[in-house]
Amino acid sequence: MKKFLLAAAIGLLLTGCGATRIGAGTNPSPSPSASGCFGFDVSATDTDHAVTMRVGQKLEVTLHAPNGMKNWAEPRSGDPTVLAPIVHPAATAARGVTLAAFQAMKPGAVDITSNASPACPPGAACPMYLAVYSLKVTITR
Questions:
Q1: Domain residue limits, the chain
Q2: Are 118 and 70 a contacting pair, CB within 8 Å?
Q3: The dihedral sign for the CA sequence 28, 101, 62, 13
Q4: Which residues contact 106 (CB under 8 A, 6 or more apart)?
Q5: Which DSSP symbol is given to 112?
Q6: CA triplet 14, 51, 40: central angle to 5 degrees?
Q7: Contact 2, 94 (CB under 8 A)
Q8: Which strands sit side by side in the sheet containing 58-64, from one edge to the other?
Q9: For FRET with 5, which of 11, 42, 79, 80 sits at 20 to 30 Å CA-CA?
Q10: Per residue of the chain (141 residues), what is the pLDDT tens digit?
Q11: Which superfamily, per CATH, for 17-119+126-140?
């Protein structure tokens, strides 16, 4: 019961901070607004596929493990000179949640990628597939 309450509290904290969700789908917003209690300007989840932000802004990525899958691998920037990884202030996430944070360093376009594999019991046959997540980040001045 304590674990459930802790997970619920973390979930409420993350959703209640007022982080602005920018660019869901393929229609990124050209002007993200600053908000969020952890100091993030832009927030993306596993349902987002494109975001737009400005140089100097911070991006939070929150990925939830699909049913029957292991946690997502740490999300990686395709070009750290454009979008650099930074330490996430809420480094400990609820079970099944992967958190990552990035800062826009210069104008450009970069992909953030991650993957997850099936969660199989020891000694059991395991399917050979991989879930892939990709987020297109466009950075403007």
A1: 17-119+126-140
A2: yes
A3: negative
A4: 55, 81, 82, 139
A5: E
A6: 35
A7: no
A8: 42-45, 58-64, 97-104, 83-86
A9: 42
A10: 444 433 444 443 444 444 343 443 434 443 343 444 568 999 999 999 999 999 999 999 999 999 999 999 999 999 999 999 999 877 667 889 999 999 999 999 999 999 999 999 999 999 999 999 999 999 999
A11: Immunoglobulins (2.60.40.10)
Say whether 118 sits in a helix, a strand or coil: strand
Q: What is the pTM of this model?
A: 0.72
- Provide the 3-class DSSP secondary structure of residue 46: coil
Name the residue among 56, 55, 48, 54 with its Cα closest to residue 21. 48
- Beta-carbon contacts of 85 under 8 Å, excluding residues fewer than 6 positions away, are 76, 77, 100, 101, 102
Q: Give the tokens for residue 90.
A: 């809420």
Helix (H, G, I), strand (E, B) or coil at 119: coil
Q: Are 19 and 44 in contact (CB under 8 A)?
A: no
Containing 15, the helix (H) or strand (E) segment is helix 2-16
> Are 80 and 106 contacting, i.e. CB atoms less than 8 angstroms apart?
no
